[in-house]
Amino acid sequence: MRLLKISALLLLGILTLSVSSSFLIESTKAYEYGWGVYLPNNVIQGVDSENEVYYSTVICDEICWMLYYYYTTYHYSWYYEVACGSQEDPIHPGDYSTALNNLQTNNDKVTFFTKGHCVPWGYAYWHRELLCTLASFDPDNGEQAKDSYDIWPYTGQFKNRFSFIWHCGTADQYPQGPPYQDPYGLKYGMPFCFTHNMAMDYYGSSGSYVYLGWLGTAPQFDCFIPYQTEGTVWWFHFAYYFFYSLIYEQYLSVMDALNILSNWIWDEPFNESPYYDHLIVWGNGNMGLSY
Amino acid sequence: MRKKLKILVVTTTLVIVIMAFGTTSIAKSEIPTSQQKVEAFTEMALPIDKSQYNITLAGYFVWDTPDIEDVDRQLDNCRRETYTYLCLSDQSELRLNYVVEDGVLTTCFVSVRKGQVLTDQTYSKLNDAVIGFFGKYQNFGAADTSEMQNMLQNTDLTGNQTFLSGDLKLKISNGDYPFTGHQTTLKWYRVINGCEYLELSLSFANDAFCNLKDVRELYPIGDATVNISKEQAIAIAMQYIAENYTYEMYGGVWVRDFKVNERLTTAVLSSTTRNSNTRYPVWNIMLTLDHTYPGSVAALLVLVSAGSGEVLLCSNQAEGGITAPTDEDTNVIVLPSTSPSTLSPSPAAPTDSVPSNSNTENAVIAATVTVTALALVLITLFIKKRKR
């Protein structure tokens, strides 16, 4: 009789496990790739010129369509978040948080591009914050997407495998050793907060993550690239053809794309160009958009 | 009847021959000239051991232009085609990337994905490897490189230095890079009236060919006259921004009246192909402003033709934010200037591996199987006991 009871209990356990496992598996069922393109233009503050707003909008829109084409052509499932169709999105830091959270919840891997402004904040200026549309430099009006508050908590599933954060100072402040946080316990720096990965090499060639950002100032799109031999290339062309190369040739990697652009613009490989050590690749430069 | 049969046989044969020729010619014409050029380069000039690699075309695209309105920001009309080949062997995996511009093969670079480049020949000195490459490159049909080769005789390629032979300048640079390893780059410039015109750039990483850019055929040197001095060019640029340059901000506000920090003004003479099929000299005047202007504009870049003094272009140089105070002020750990030391994993953060949801699923399945097995054993025991 005792055995029967135990057996009954075990069978009940099986039933519970089966039901819960089906729920668990359901909840972990995700799309293969997710991608997001964000463009917070500071039109209200007058931080961007009219041309800057125009070219940023056009190019980010093109990048959106190219990514859409790529992931629908080469991969069976995808999900995306876009905020570049108007001059106002994303208005609030929460827009970043929501997008990143949706992307990591719905996908196994996430590709993310954002273009805009960024300023230092926090303990000894270790931190960075992406300016949203309603941002202002002074006083702090709470309209900046802060690395530790608005990015870090929403990227904790380690899905952000391909990130290009085209804002100022988004490649620096990558913690080089423990404790990976400031004295107040806050995680800092965009590379770490987007990826949750503290082992990405400087212009590395291995691993499962790649993160691109700018050391110091990031050039704006509507600026002619200095000291080029080509004579007609603006920064928006650079951003456009970076993604264009990766999208229309799926065997190309991040470093291949940068080499193509560098040979075109400066007649030399990327590591000899004026922007090596400025446009930084953290992680695996051999990665392309299929990873 | 026999005659008819003969005619039928001859006609059929002719049709077959014509069809065969037609197919051949169609098949041949399907390979574009640019691809033939690229593959000829791989065969004749690329210094890798082709016998050890399985080389296949992996991708091709023509550069499309973004849909923009402003004529001033359009690219030139050059047709650019990119080819990518996979090179696979047991020990090594490479990508060969080529760019053909207006039918001219200008760019080739090799990226190593696995192992090392298997070269077709081993050389005791890099000089010999470079000269060896030039020999093959000539056979491929490239423009003459004998002048460049002459400069390599008895030249030390290990340091960072510059050599001049007549009006040909050779700049040698060496560096260690995390991604490629040790890289030596040789650049030959034709120097005319103080302006340097790049002819050819060649890089070797870890003593193996890795990058070529040859612009001699695509963009020959045109009118190299320099009539405008550096000081005159700066004056022209200053006058232009004072009288002509303005840009629009949100709400129809136009920004003008720029003040320049003259101490920080720079002027560099270089070559350009802007609005031209040939290269000509241009002054790049970078005017750093006295403060950041609306639109995050910190400087203005003015291109002044060194021949005519015409202003070819003026572009603001805007930035995406402000930078932090210096390290001394903040004790911040910033980016290392060279590759960082090896990082050890922290218990607080993941290493560079991809977490998988399948772990959860596997655990659930394993638990279910174990419990089921246990239940079955117990039920069997119970039944046996009852039977007794």
Give a verbal description of the structure.
Chain A has 291 residues and is of the alpha/beta class. Chain A is built from 7 helices and 9 strands, in the order αβαβαββββαβαβααβ. Chain A has a single domain (35-283), classed as Rossmann fold, CATH 3.40.50. Chain A has helices spanning 2-28, 50-74, 93-106, 147-151, 190-195, 235-248, 254-266, and strands at 31-38, 78-83, 107-115, 118-121, 127-131, 144-146, 160-166, 210-214, 279-283. Residues 21-27 of chain A have low confidence and may be disordered. Chain B is an alpha+beta fold. Chain B has helices spanning 2-30, 33-44, 126-140, 146-152, 230-243, 327-330, 358-387, and strands at residues 54-62, 80-88, 93-101, 104-114, 161-165, 168-177, 181-192, 195-205, 208-214, 247-249, 253-255, 266-272, 280-293, 297-305, 311-318. In chain B, the strands form 3 sheets. A 9-stranded antiparallel sheet of chain B has the order 1-2-3-4-9-8-7-6-5. In chain B, a hairpin with a 3-residue loop joins β6 and β7. The longest helix of chain B is centred in the C-terminal third of the chain and has 30 residues, at 358-387.
Structure at a glance:
The complex is a heterodimer of chains A (291) and B (388). Chain A has helices at 2-28, 50-74, 93-106, 147-151, 190-195, 235-248, 254-266, and strands at 31-38, 78-83, 107-115, 118-121, 127-131, 144-146, 160-166, 210-214, 279-283.
Q: What secondary-structure arrangement, pairings included, does this model have?
A:
The complex is a heterodimer of chains A (291) and B (388).
Chain A: H1 2-28, E1 31-38, H2 50-74, E2 78-83, H3 93-106, E3 107-115, E4 118-121, E5 127-131, E6 144-146, H4 147-151, E7 160-166, H5 190-195, E8 210-214, H6 235-248, H7 254-266, E9 279-283
Parallel strand pairs in A: 1-2, 1-3, 3-7, 7-8
Antiparallel strand pairs in A: 4-5, 5-6, 8-9
Helix pairs in contact in A: 2-6, 6-7
Chain B: H1 2-30, H2 33-44, E1 54-62, E2 80-88, E3 93-101, E4 104-114, H3 126-140, H4 146-152, E5 161-165, E6 168-177, E7 181-192, E8 195-205, E9 208-214, H5 230-243, E10 247-249, E11 253-255, E12 266-272, E13 280-293, E14 297-305, E15 311-318, H6 327-330, H7 358-387
Antiparallel strand pairs in B: 1-2, 2-3, 3-4, 4-9, 5-6, 6-7, 7-8, 8-9, 10-11, 12-13, 13-14, 14-15
